[in-house]
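Hey,
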Amino acid sequence: MMKTILKQLLLQQSALGVLTKWRYAIVLSSILQITAFLLQTPIAKADSPLTSTDLASAYQDLTVIDTIQEKKPLQGEALRFLLSNAPLDEKAAVINKLGWNIDGQNNGYIFLQALAKKRGVAVNNLVLTDLTPKDKFVLGYLLAMDDYFNLSPLDINSNNNLFSATPLDLLSQAAFAMPEDFTVHFIKSLVEAQLYFDVSWCAIYLTPQSVLRIFPTETRNLRSSAVSQAMEYINLYQDNCY
């Protein structure tokens, strides 16, 4: 990428007939300074706590993972899997594999529509108490990936407490109801870390680390390779705590 930028700048200078060794040195020096600055930041290596933590790679043995096309709407086998009684760590891997879209996506609402259909009710008639803690976890993580910039609810102006609930609201309720479920608490910590992105890079590191401290390795229901891969990114923020 840097070579492309340099080439474009040099072509512009050449077209103007002012390319000299002196100007070339200034252009090169500026690019090197910018590159050095970027390489010192986690942003250069990844995007954000939600979009750059890879859980799905550790679950490639699941048939459903192979059916998912990243950045495509939730559908088919993946949707049926999220509605099933599958373990939450596997559901988290599926949601992680579904990924994110910089322009936003609507997987949370798709899941809620399917859940309402399964229950035999209209989606607009569902309220927060109709969802189990596991349903809240799935919906919360989906919504967080749908709008990782703002972590917004389905409808901020809705009078329905389900549609006005933020991803963190849903995940916090799920975590409270399932205090011993590592997957739920770890995903919640990633969403909290996302909120800290523009506030405290140290907090991005400490929040998931705090969950690891609470849950010894043998009590975790998320595969260790998934945790390690996620923490590879989170650990980039550790130096901001010193």
